[in-house]
C-alpha cells in the first residue's frame, strides 16, 4: 500500500516511511554525539520513577533500543549501521569521534 503526499506528490510505502524516520533518528543521534551527548544523557525525569518505572527496567529498555537501532553502548550509531543505511556522511562523522 502506498501513501501519497498531497502537497509534494510523493508516493511511499509504510515501510519506506518507517525507514526514513529511523534514518532521521540515527542522524539526530550523530548530531547529539558531535555535541557531546551520549548514554548518560538518555534519562527519564525523576517523576517517571515515582510512577512505577525502575532504573533497572529503564536500563533494559534503553539497551534494547540501542540494539534495535544499531547503536553502541554509548548510544552512538555504529559505523556499520550507518553504512548499511547509506548514511555515508554520518558514518564519516562518527568515525572521526
List the helices and strands and how they pair.
Elements: E1 2-4, E2 11-13, H1 14-34, H2 46-50, H3 55-69, H4 79-84, H5 88-95
Antiparallel strand pairs: 1-2
Model description:
The chain has five helices and two strands. A two-stranded antiparallel ribbon has the order 1-2. About 55% of the residues lie in helices and about 5% in strands. With about 100 residues, it is mainly alpha-helical. It has helices at about 15-35, 45-50, 55-70, 80-85, 90-95; strands at about 1-5, 10-15. Strand 1 (about 1-5) and strand 2 form a beta hairpin.
Mean pLDDT: 91
Uncertain runs: none
Helix run count: 5
- Helix/strand order: EEHHHHH
Give the tags:
97 residues; mainly alpha; single chain; globular; two-stranded antiparallel sheet; 6% strand
Describe, in short, the structure shown.
By secondary structure, the protein is mainly alpha-helical. Helices cover 57% and strands 6% of the residues. It has helices at residues 14-34, 46-50, 55-69, 79-84, 88-95, and strands spanning 2-4, 11-13.
